[in-house]
Design a protein that fits this description.
Number of helices: 7
Order of helices and strands: HHEHEEHEEEEEHEHEH
Helix content: 25-40%
Largest sheet: 8 strands, mixed
Distance between the termini: 49 Å
Radius of gyration: 18 Å
Length: about 220
Amino acid sequence: MWHSFHALYRVYSHALKHPVQTLLLFVSSLLLSGGVKAEQGSAYDDYQIKAVYIYRFASFVRWPQAPDHQIQYCAYGADNISQTLHQLILNDLTANKRLVFHYIDNLSQAAQCELVYISPSQFPIRHDIPKLSGVLTISSYPDFIDYGGMIELRTDKRRIRPIIALDIIKQANMAISSQLLRISIIENSLAISQQRALTIKEQPLIPRGRYAPLAQ
């Protein structure tokens, strides 16, 4: 009994000293069991669970870049999700500096990223989300897929689930692991985003070719 109590105390003490790592381990253990239910993650806020999802997505994507390339996480707009994501990356001592986090000032800088989280505070966006080879776009904004986004983190029946625009991801030369697809909702978004493009006025194109440097 004493050994059991001592083991529990060690786990509890580690959780107090390393809350970010504990969050990562706890939520990651639930991701592949069908998504995280609100009652399962009740010890954590919704934004914390979504940040772990974004952090873990890199492990379930086959990139067109070299396997050992540096993975750039970018956030367009600061909020609780992006701040938590930043902390997760800073506290990952196993990544060997392969994971980097940046804030970007506009979506024209997305070409320098592998994963781009777009804060709901940046919506409504008048133009479609950039579709670039090897760049995964993610948001928790409702109907993000309709804007041409690739993954929307949606709370559905008290469960946080990824909504994946698989067709757009394939066009961007990426592939999603079957493990992630099993817990996700797949949508065909090309037709939706094309129809939406016909209903809005023509907008200036996002400049391509030269990009402003990323801010650390």
